[in-house]
Write a structure and sequence with these properties.
The structure holds 2 protein chains of 2 kinds. In chain A, 0% of the residues lie in helices and 49% in strands. Chain A is mainly β. In chain A, a hairpin with a 5-residue loop joins β4 and β5. The chains are: A mainly beta, B mainly beta. Chain A binds chain B through residues 4, 33, 35, 40-45, 48, 55-56, 59, 91, 93, 95, 98-109, 111, and chain B through 2, 4, 30-31, 35, 40-45, 48, 50, 88, 90, 92, 94, 96-105.
Chain lengths: 115, 112
Amino acid sequence: NAGVMQNPRHLVRRRGQEARLRCSPMKGHSHVYWYRQLPEEGLKFMVYLQKENIIDESGMPKERFSAEFPKEGPSILRIQQVVRGDSAAYFCASSPSTGKRAEAFFGQGTRLTVV
Amino acid sequence: SQQGEEDPQALSIQEGENATMNCSYKTSINNLQWYRQNSGRGLVHLILIRSNEREKHSGRLRVTLDTSKKSSSLLITASRAADTASYFCATVRNSGYSTLTFGKGTMLLVSP
């Protein structure tokens, strides 16, 4: 059972371009969480999705950021018109259930650099 | 200020010594979890302690939880160079969804 797979591992975008980050959860996991980690900081929650539904997007900026988790395929975090402040590591986690004690498994992250 | 703040920010010890990291939080929690992150890598789940538990052990790890003080500690005994990493505590609130709220982490350096 492969772990949570994120790609690409590293992504460089120029200001104004779009960034697409992909996350394939562990097999059997239907809950996906995206977190952002700024340099020297802890992770900050962005969005929580189940298949075809956004459950909680309270941590996601209102503009330029969107996320989806389609019925088929990976979860996508999309950042439009990137700015330098978007440079960070973006981590995806998945869990098999919504229970508060369900362990979340993290991917290796996508490091986005905006130049 | 944010939920789950660790101290110290950085800790440097010799192999064989014990390392203690502390975490404080602000809201009512369902559970508290500790994670390890090696440089440039993802997070690895270490241990979960429920709000009704006071202490938990896993191998060389010992976690305590004091809900009256809203604090937790992670003790790593007989540390090894391979323990060098950043350690984060994360809380799951009683209300709302099971999302994690992380602190800024403690960077642990274990020298051979």
